Amino acid sequence: MTMPDLLPPPDPVMLAADGPISLFLDFDGTLVDIAATPDSIHVPADMALRLAALAERFDGRVALISGRAIIDLERHLGPVEIACAGSHGSDCRSADGLSIGDTPGALPAEVLERIAMFAAENDVAREDKPHGAALHFRANPSAEENGLIFAQALAGKYDLQVKRGKCVIELVARGADKAGAVRSFMQTAPFGGSRPIFVGDDVTDEDGMRAAGEFGGFGVAVGERPSDHAKYALACPAAVHHWLDL
Ligand SMILES: O=P(O)(O)OC[C@H]1O[C@H](O[C@H]2O[C@H](CO)[C@@H](O)[C@H](O)[C@H]2O)[C@H](O)[C@@H](O)[C@@H]1O
């Protein structure tokens, strides 16, 4: 783990390198500041247009790789006209909306019911997604320890995977992660043959950074979290916007 203050900031010049570059961008904590609840994020009204313009600069090689469901990203951004992966890589789509790779189904109904029950009994916010579900502990951190025990037991019983994040514990299908999303995109046009840069702030982004390394690229860590796989660091989403001229 490297503390972010020991990592240099990425130079804008590296975005204009000789060979083609791809950008894989996490959303919460990377493109938008973390907020008290998933719905209270501030997303600039022209963000989707700015992302589309960024993708144009990179000949389409820009993708959003988020823990949020794509439908939720679109609720905040409006129609997203760039490649994106939702629910931690469960659902990958090209810029023209075509599915890439296999998309797992929804979590079993019993799992969703038990998550809903845990949320109600423990005064924890819940977020259902087409391919997963999350328990949010930002407003009630004391419930997080029990939440993890609960999620791990449920994951074991139903062969699911637990994802940790900032004040959040999520359940998704086994095998879904941001490394898989990067690999899927890197096997398709226009990403294939490029050097990927993965930019993210959270523990699930480490998978994406690791996968970027497999293709000769690197990770950029955002914020204060120490990183295993980042080569560079930026302090906050505003610094990401500045670096990318977004
Ligand atoms: O992979 P990301 O795009 O970073 O998504 C990760 C999770 O982000 C959201 O939760 C986080 O952001 C919220 C708003 O700032 C914050 O209130 C929460 O505590 C964070 O965990 C989103 O709600 C999740 O679905 C994503 O998986």
Model description:
It comes from Aurantiacibacter marinus. This is Trehalose 6-phosphate phosphatase. Pathway: Glycan biosynthesis; trehalose biosynthesis. The protein is of the alpha/beta class and 246 residues long. It has two domains: 21-103 and 176-244, HAD superfamily/HAD-like (Rossmann fold); 109-172, Alpha-Beta Plaits (2-Layer Sandwich), CATH 3.30.70. The protein is built from seven helices and twelve strands. It has helices at residues 47-57, 70-77, 109-122, 144-158, 178-186, 205-214, 237-244; strands spanning 21-25, 62-65, 83-86, 91-93, 99-100, 125-129, 132-136, 160-165, 168-173, 195-200, 218-222, 230-234. Strands 5-4-3-2-1-10-11-12 form an eight-stranded mixed beta sheet, sandwiched between helices. Helix 5 packs parallel to helix 6 (205-214). It starts with 20 loop residues before the first strand and ends with a helix. The mean pLDDT is 95. The site of ligand L263DTV3 has 24 residues, from strand 7 and strand 9.
